[in-house]
Design goal:
Helix content: 55-70%
Strand content: 5-15%
Order of helices and strands: EEEHHEHHHEHHHHHHEHEHH
Number of helices: 14
Shape: globular
Largest sheet: 5 strands, parallel
Oligomer: single chain
């Protein structure tokens, strides 16, 4: 949930909280729900009825740099505006509790922690104290020449790091012997199990696009109740979760769905029944 209010000094302040059920939509799901009126209506209704939270990451905001479709960006902004205040924004790398427990270290080359929340606050100031996603996606499309290289560099750097990890003899040996234990954080467990999966499946692809799926998948699985992800990454998460559980370690990870009609219907049924389960 995200809200803005004026404090005693007259300054606009933003308050954000992840309220269950938390839902994460990978890029394809965000586009699908924005484009199809039936999915859009069902999703917004279920989100509001369950008082849940749509979790958005920096990856969601960077993806439009790759498709350069202003009309599509407008549809996404419209969907997200309907979801307000049942949203939460986070940079999965920088902000604490997502990819890293304390967040990535601050540096001159990267934005500060919680920059996305501050961006939303600034947009609300310009929008007469009302939260809005308007321009947040169309602006990325409009400034494609600036954002696209940054987006590509991010994907390439992760893919290169994983490729090096997979062929390094020491890392290869340690990865294959990775043994989950109860004292390990969910982040450590899931990342190590997923990286081990890439090592023991030598023919498994890990492209620049897989880098984005990796950035989507790990925090979404850890911090969400329901995550709509690419099918191949749902399968990778299934294997990672099973490997962790096979060592007697029990962690709660998001239930995952991909883009088939059956899986989407299952997602809506699960989300709509959330209050009954709790």
């Amino acid at each position: 949930m995200i809200t803005v209010d004026r404090n005693a000094d007259g300054l606009l302040e933003l308050t954000a909280e992840l309220v269950a059920p938390v839902i994460y939509l990978d890029h394809w799901a965000l586009v699908e729900f924005a484009n199809r009126d039936d999915y859009r209506e069902k999703f917004i209704a279920a989100l509001k009825d369950t008082s849940g939270t749509l979790l958005l990451s920096q990856a969601n905001f960077f993806e439009p740099a790759g498709f350069q479709d202003n009309d599509q960006a407008l549809r996404i902004e419209s969907l997200l505006n309907e979801a307000i205040p049942n949203v939460y924004v986070a940079d999965f790398m920088k902000d604490p509790g997502f990819f890293f427990i304390s967040g990535a270290p601050d540096s001159a080359e990267s934005p500060e922690k919680h920059w996305l929340a501050r961006h939303m606050l600034n947009a609300a100031v310009k929008n007469h104290d009302e939260l809005t996603f308007s321009t947040m996606f169309t602006e990325v499309v409009a400034q494609n020449s600036m954002f696209a290289p940054i987006f590509q560099d991010m994907k390439d750097s992760v893919a290169t790091a994983v490729a090096s990890f997979r062929i390094d003899p020491l890392q290869l040996d340690e990865g294959k012997k990775f043994t989950p234990t109860e004292h390990m954080s969910a982040q450590h467990l899931l990342m190590a199990a997923l990286l081990r999966d890439t090592q023991i499946n030598a023919n498994q692809n890990f492209s620049a696009n897989d880098s984005m799926d990796f950035i989507h998948a790990v925090p979404a699985a850890i911090r969400s109740d329901y995550a709509l992800l690419d099918k191949s990454w749902c399968n990778r998460l299934d294997r990672a979760e099973k490997y962790i559980a096979d060592h007697g370690v029990r962690k709660k990870f998001a239930k995952r769905y991909w883009g088939s009609t059956n899986k989407l219907n299952e997602f809506f049924a699960d989300l709509n029944s959330y209050k009954i389960k709790t």
